[in-house]
């Protein structure tokens, strides 16, 4: 169940996309619409990679999630989307990263990613507390013992470290942040509909640069 804020964000984002499309694409400007990552982070080889950096505890990421989910459903065949749970130096966001990679390792992202956002922002549950988290997971019909084992696994710990390094390499100022092809960081404008439009234009830019259509 979404809050009124989440519903409003979706409506405004949709309106923003419509306005952007109706007015025609505005030429991208570095420093206003995007920042170039130098050196670029390694992208996927076969497709244009779009990476969202997020934190489960971030209210802006919560509002952006339904907008992004709608955009994902219409991804072109040459575009691949992935998420990276951001981790900043104080490690406050590490539990959220461990949660995401545990869900990913157990093939539960599609089922529980949105539910985790709702548990934190709607039900006000402290999923950064292990006992509360494990109780919540069990209530979602997940084997709590298997979840605990995966949560503590070397594989999850390795992914968390990689996320920490990627966050640092991208020099993020906050989340949600979206990176295209490891090279272009979309800058968040006034609404999420405009952000989606910038992401689409950056994808088109990468196609033009690679000579593909």
Give structural notes.
With 213 residues, the protein is α+β, with helices and mostly antiparallel strands. The chain has a single domain, classed as Glutaredoxin (3-Layer(aba) Sandwich), CATH 3.40.30. Helix content is 53%, strand content 11%. It is built from eight helices and five strands. The protein has a five-stranded mixed β-sheet, sandwiched between helices. Strand 4 and strand 5 form a beta hairpin. Helix 1 packs across helix 2 and helix 1 crosses helix 8. The longest helix has 20 residues. About 7% of the residues have low confidence.
Secondary-structure blueprint:
Layout: H1 4-23, E1 34-36, E2 48-54, H2 59-72, E3 79-85, H3 94-105, H4 109-121, H5 130-139, H6 144-151, H7 154-170, E4 177-180, E5 184-186, H8 192-210
Parallel strand pairs: 2-3
Antiparallel strand pairs: 1-5, 2-4, 4-5
Helix pairs in contact: 1-2, 1-8, 3-7
Q: Write the element-wise H/E pattern from the N-terminal end onward.
A: HEEHEHHHHHEEH
Strand order of the largest sheet: 1-5-4-2-3
**Discrete helix count:** 8
Main sheet attributes: strand count, strand direction, barrel closure: 5 strands, mixed
Helical residue percent?
40-55%
Q: In the CATH hierarchy, what is the architecture at level 2? A: 3-Layer(aba) Sandwich
End-to-end separation: 39 Å
Q: Give the radius of gyration.
A: 18 Å
The CATH topology comes to Glutaredoxin
Task: Name the CATH homologous superfamily.
Answer: Glutaredoxin
CATH class: Alpha Beta
Shape, please? globular
Mean pLDDT: 88
As a percent range, the share of strand residues is: 5-15%
Q: What class do helices, strands and sheet pairing give?
A: alpha+beta
Give the domain tally. Answer: 1
Could you name the ranges where pLDDT drops below 50 across 5 or more consecutive residues?
10-24
Query: Quick one: how many beta strands?
Result: 5
